[in-house]
Specification:
The protein is mainly alpha-helical and 393 residues long. It has 16 helices and two strands. A hairpin with a 2-residue loop joins strand 1 and strand 2. The radius of gyration is 25 Å and the shape is globular. The chain starts with a helix and ends with a helix.
Length: 393
């Protein structure tokens, strides 16, 4: 009997979850917001597109002459038909040297520590991080990663358009959609004025578990769809072809961190295509974190508007602490504030790199996202316990 009862409970659980999913799918404002996000992203991609002819020429060169600059590369390019694109490519690449052969990660650590007057454990942690990066630099120098021609002078333009702007927009929109879905699911009975019927019993309140699952799946699906459509628009607009295989550490792309320009040095070998996939995947994890926090706010607040205000104010205060701590040189507080959902979101353009002064360990954005996910799940569990006991009015 116990086995049958358990199967019955599982069937009811999934049936209720499907029902809540259907309710969420019938909310028109979520689709309106999604459509506005797509339109905005399309304008973001199409509004700054230029230099397509030159990009197409570099793409052909990569196919015929290879992707690594050097004497053999330049000899092949010299043999091509004369034209403005050829002259521009040779002007941008001729005589390029491997920047990692002379790059010293420990010098970068010393520069950051001296520039920002860091001391104590933050300076020690930063030095230890760049000691690990020194080994990474050796591997990049051995593979001539910085000699990847990329899209030559258009490399930074394309990379910024994709990672600095489009991915930032997709991530921010995905977080908002996650919070909206969480607040609707947790407060749908208040919207429909059925909460007095549903939440009068302990079993009735436990329907929030099914709502949680339904909203989580919906938010994840919307984020994935938003990312796929936006990236498809970018790919169809630029038609990069072989340029998608550009190594992220090409010398035509760099990182800007608190007034210091540094080579773009990820902790693993990423091509442009692989880095995009990694960014979107971590963005999905961050969207789940914000969904859980949004659901917690929906459970504890009197209504969804108050819940959204709580999430927004908490994130804004988090960013304010980061800014004030940085301006005051309180680097211990600054580094601690980076281990938060808003801190991870803020550093999005530098994910999977050393992140300069913003991180004290390798892969900090991944560790911080995992910590935030666990913390959000624990807080939400405590929120459910409180919700099941509190007096609803």
């Amino acid at each position: 009997m116990s086995g049958r009862r358990m199967m019955y409970r599982k069937e009811i659980y999934w049936e209720l979850a499907c029902w809540e999913w259907k309710k969420l799918c019938r909310v028109p404002m979520l689709y309106v917001f999604f459509a506005l996000c797509i339109v905005f992203n399309m304008q973001l991609v199409l509004g700054e597109r230029y230099g397509e002819d030159y990009v197409a020429y570099v793409k052909q060169v990569r196919r015929d002459a290879g992707s690594r600059m050097g004497d053999a590369f330049w000899e092949r390019v010299e043999s091509f038909s004369d034209g403005e694109e050829k002259e521009r490519l040779l002007r941008e690449t001729k005589g390029a040297q491997d920047i990692f052969e002379a790059y010293d990660a420990l010098d970068t650590a010393a520069l950051i520590v001296n520039k920002y007057r860091m001391d104590g454990w933050t300076a020690a942690a930063l030095g230890h991080k760049y000691q690990k990066q020194a080994r990474r630099i050796q591997k990049l120098a051995a593979s001539d990663a910085s000699m990847d021609v990329g899209a030559a002078g258009m490399t930074k333009t394309i990379f910024d358009a994709l990672f600095e702007k489009l991915c930032r927009a997709v991530l921010t929109e995905g977080l908002l959609l996650a919070v909206f879905a969480a607040l609707f699911c947790s407060g749908s009975e208040q919207f429909e004025r059925t909460w007095q019927l549903v939440y009068t019993s302990r079993r009735g309140r436990s329907v929030q578990r099914e709502k949680l699952l339904a909203g989580l799946l919906f938010a994840a699906a919307m984020y994935v769809l938003l990312a796929l459509v936006s990236c498809a628009v970018f790919a169809g607009s630029w038609r990069l072809g072989e340029i998608w295989e550009t190594h992220m550490s090409t010398q035509f792309y760099d990182a800007y961190s608190m007034g210091i320009r540094l080579p773009f040095v990820p902790w693993a070998d990423f091509t442009m295509r692989g880095y995009l996939a990694a960014v979107l995947l971590l963005g999905l994890v961050l969207a789940v974190v914000f969904y859980l926090l949004g659901y917690l706010a929906g459970l504890l607040a009197k209504n969804s508007y108050a819940g959204f205000a709580a999430v927004f104010v908490a994130s804004a205060l988090n960013l304010e602490v980061i800014m004030l701590a940085g301006n005051a040189g309180s680097w211990g507080i600054y580094e601690a504030a980076m281990w938060t959902p808003a801190g991870v979101w803020l550093l999005h353009p530098l994910w999977f790199t050393d992140m300069g002064i913003h991180a004290v360990i390798p892969w900090q954005e991944c560790a911080a996202a995992a910590l935030c996910l666990v913390a959000a799940a624990v807080l939400l569990s405590c929120g459910f316990c409180y919700y099941n006991r509190k007096d609803l009015k």
